[in-house]
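User: Hi! I have a protein structure encoded as tokens and I'd like to know what sequence might fold into it. I'm fairly new to this, so please keep things simple.
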């Protein structure tokens, strides 16, 4: 079984439709978040975007009209069906706090989120 298949089983995903911006160099694209986990996210393919598996982007998931965002560096793991799957490579402390809270509220299980965070620390 591939690592990405294992991640799908080990990390809960939350459907959360909000604006997302991806950036690389001096280029920026707006899109919509489809779902998010502690390990990565899935977004709609932005108009005019062309990227490749393995490329790294800065990703900003807007939680409250530009007041709160989850910011991370993420690499592309798949592009299919007009969607891009990213794996989180780095996330700052404030962003992981927001992501953790988002996961807890939507999953309704703080202990599950804690177990998944523990798996990230041991990966």
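Assistant: Happy to help. Inverse folding works backwards from shape to sequence: for each of the 123 positions I chose a residue that suits the local structure. Here it is:
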């Amino acid at each position: 079984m591939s690592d990405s298949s294992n991640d799908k089983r080990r990390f809960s995903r939350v459907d959360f439709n909000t604006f997302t911006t991806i950036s690389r160099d001096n280029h920026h694209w707006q899109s919509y978040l489809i779902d998010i986990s502690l390990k990565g996210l899935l977004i709609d393919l932005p108009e005019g975007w062309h990227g490749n598996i393995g490329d790294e982007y800065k990703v900003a998931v807007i939680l409250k009209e530009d007041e709160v965002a989850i910011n991370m560096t993420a690499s592309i793991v798949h592009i299919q069906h007009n969607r891009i799957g990213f794996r989180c490579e780095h996330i700052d402390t404030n962003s992981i706090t927001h992501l953790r809270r988002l996961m807890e509220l939507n999953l309704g299980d703080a202990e599950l989120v804690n177990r998944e965070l523990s798996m990230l620390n041991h990966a």
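A useful reference point when you look it over: Confidence is low (pLDDT under 50) at residues 1-9. Feel free to ask if any position seems puzzling.
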